[in-house]
Amino acid sequence: MNTSDAIIASAGDDRNNIVSALLAQRFGVHKIICEVKKSQYVAVYNKLGIHNLINPRMLAIAHILRLIKQEEVVALSIVQGEKAEVLELVLPAGSGSAHKKINSLNIPRGMMVGTIVREEEVLIPDGDTVLLPKDHLIIFSLPKTAHRLERYFA
Q1: 116 strand-pairing partners
Q2: What is the pLDDT of residue 74?
Q3: Average pLDDT over residues 77-99
Q4: Which CATH number fits domain 58-153: 3.30.70.1450, 3.40.605.10, 3.30.565.10, 2.60.40.10?
Q5: How much is the pLDDT for 101?
Q6: What is the DSSP letter of 71?
Q7: What is the mean predicted confidence (pLDDT) over 147-154?
């Protein structure tokens, strides 16, 4: 009989965490969160059906980047072992991008506005979409262009 709703496997060793997660699965625990230190173990977890993974290094990187980027940043995620960033920011009223169409901004390859949350509405933008102050922008960026985000959206 299951007496736990969730488990966090954070023993400090990936192999121990995998075994703990498998035991938890076997005993019917539905919410399993595992710490993963070595990125090569992510595929193992995924094949075992364990998808709630935490990597302390990636969390630290995301937190540091959030601190050094502009204050309008709401959330930042590092994707696929530092291969991309997903950033949510609030477009400031004084931004040079406010009240302009996306295609007029000349955003570089490797960076794109993927979603806009405007008040209660979620928009999938195209080049003719006009950015407005206080829009929440979800921006996808490759590392080679991530440092240029402030130039377009600060």
Answers
A1: 123, 137
A2: 59
A3: 77
A4: 3.30.70.1450
A5: 95
A6: T
A7: 71
Contact at 8 Å (CB) between 28 and 55? no
* DSSP for 78-118, written as a single string: EETTTTEEEEEEEPPTT-TTTTSBGGGS-PPTTEEEEEEEE
Question: Which pair of tokens denotes residue 63?
Answer: 């937190």
Residue with tokens 């709703």: 5
Domain boundaries, the chain: 6-54, 58-153
**What is the tens place of the pLDDT at every residue in 24-62?**
988 888 888 898 887 777 778 888 888 788 877 666 656
What would the two tokens of residue 13 be?
């060793």
Question: Do the Cβ atoms of 89 and 73 come closer than 8 Å?
Answer: yes
